[in-house]
Amino acid sequence: MNCKITRNAANVLRRELDKPENTGKKLRVVITHSHGDHAHYGLDLGEPTDKDEVVLTDKGIDVILARGEDLLDGIKIDYLYFPQEGFVITNPSKGNHGDH
Questions:
Q1: How far from 86 is each of 35, 78, 83, 94, 98, CA to CA, in Å?
Q2: Is 28 strand, coil or helix?
Q3: DSSP states of 29-77 as a string?
Q4: Rg (CA), the chain
Q5: CA 51 to CA 47: how far, in whole Å?
Q6: Which top-level group of life is the source organism from (predicted)?
Q7: Is residue 83 reached through a cis peptide bond, with omega within 30 degrees of 0 on the bond before it?
Q8: Taking a C-beta distance cutoff of 8 angstroms, is the pair 62, 47 a contact?
Q9: Is 19 helix (H, G, I), strand (E, B) or coil?
Q10: β-strands 62-66, 26-35: how paired?
Q11: What is the pLDDT of residue 100?
Q12: What is the reported pLDDT for 79?
């Protein structure tokens, strides 16, 4: 499975992961809703289970993805400051380039 994290997102995520209360936790991406050929995604912190795969990104952040979830393979995590500040998760490899 593949996951890409942009520089902006990595900076924000590292600040959160470096907090003492998050020691030992990893970033988890979940599907909050799916329909048709795309999904809507959410973020959480946690520890992997035997149903998960841990993917190491090029930004050095481990990401937990549910094994066998096709719509998680190829996701891109970005953090935008405009027009609204926050995380944006898409899956360009599946044709999902943003919410509709």
A1: 23, 8, 10, 22, 13
A2: strand
A3: EEEEEEETTEEEEEEEEE---TTEEEEE-TTS-EEEEETT-GGGTTEEE
A4: 13
A5: 11
A6: Bacteria
A7: yes
A8: no
A9: coil
A10: parallel
A11: 43
A12: 97
Sequence-ordered list of residues with C-beta below 8 angstroms from that of 34, at least 6 positions apart, any chain: 40, 71
Residue 88 tokens, joined: 């944006």
Query: Count of CB atoms within 10 A of residue 27's CB?
Result: 24
Amino acid at 84: Q
Q: Which two tokens stand for residue 75?
A: 């996701």
* Domains annotated on the chain, with CATH: 3-94 (2.60.300.12)
Residue 85, burial from CB neighbour count under 10 angstroms (0-12, 13-18, 19+):
exposed
Longest pairwise C-alpha distance within the chain: 40
- Residue appearing with tokens 């935008």: 80
